[in-house]
Amino acid sequence: MASTAEAAPLASLGDRLEPQAARLVAERARLLRLPAGSHAFRSGEACGAYLWVTEGVVRVQIVSAAGRERVLYRVEPGESCVLTTSCIFGHEPYAAEGVCETAVAALALPVAAFRELMGQSAAFRDQVLGDYARRVGDLLLMLEATVSRNLAARLAALLVARAGAGPLETTHQAIALELGTAREVVSRALKDFERRGLVALSRGRIALADRAGLVRLARM
Q1: 97-100 and 39-41 as β-strands: parallel, antiparallel, unpaired?
Q2: Cα(1)–Cα(110) distance, rounded to whole angstroms?
Q3: Reported pTM
Q4: Which helix (H) or strand (E) holds 207?
Q5: One fold for both 4-120 and 150-218?
Q6: Which of 53, 25, 54, 30 is nearest to 117 (CA)?
Q7: Torsion angle in degrees (nearest 10) through CA of 104, 108, 114, 117
Q8: Average of pLDDT values for 166-182?
Q9: For 89-108, b where at least 16 C-beta lie within 10 A, e where not — what string?
Q10: Which residues of 44-58 are buried (b: 16+ CB within 10 A; e: fewer)?
Q11: 28 within 8 A of 109, measured Cβ to Cβ
Q12: CATH T-level topology, domain 4-120
């Protein structure tokens, strides 16, 4: 059982917890201390507690079959792990791993206690769902950036393949259909190409200003 002092960071999430909820946290939360380089959790493990970091940084990442690591996000002091929250909500094991970049102190609230608080404490529920929504937003932005980078290479390859000696006469919508994306996405990418001196844009036309640069981009 965590002491009142240990539970204080969790009890003060967002608005102050209701007295009954604060007592539940003080009674049920426990303080974890993990050394740098250790795992807070591993992919495939069952989730046994809601984690709230009070000291240090946990790096949440996925590892491909080839051993390549991809960082999803970092959990810093005063933050919860949204993957843990998702696992609790979905009754699913972890789909990624959490690695302690530094020595970490975290409060662990058993799943049963977490569910009780979600049902009885509006302050706790608002904080958990608010953290969840913000982190999902961050992940979507990261996904969009990743897709945009992939799209840039595909767009460059298409322009090099389609353009002859003169400007390519086509519309952003036609290119979007070929690439399987939205016209607005193509327009933003082409504007970025123009700023970088790779193309020159005019209505219904795309002139390749730096074909070599586009070829290099297409190979990325």
Answers
A1: antiparallel
A2: 11
A3: 0.63
A4: strand 205-208
A5: no
A6: 25
A7: -80
A8: 84
A9: eeeeebebbbbbeeebbbbb
A10: eeebebbbbbbebbb
A11: yes
A12: Jelly Rolls (2.60.120)
Domain extent listing, the chain: 4-120, 150-218
> CA-CA distance, 74 to 219, in Å (whole number)?
31
Dig out the tokens for 196 from the structure: 């970088």
Give Cβ neighbours of residue 17 (< 8 Å, ≥ 6 apart): 11, 25, 117, 121, 123, 124
Q: Quick: pLDDT tens for 13-39.
A: 444 688 888 888 888 989 999 999 999
CATH entry 1.10.10.10 includes domain 150-218: yes
Give percent above pLDDT 70 in the chain: 89
Report the distance separating Cα 20 and Cα 41, nearest Å. 30
* pLDDT tens column, 47-87: 999 998 989 999 999 887 767 777 888 899 988 899 999 99
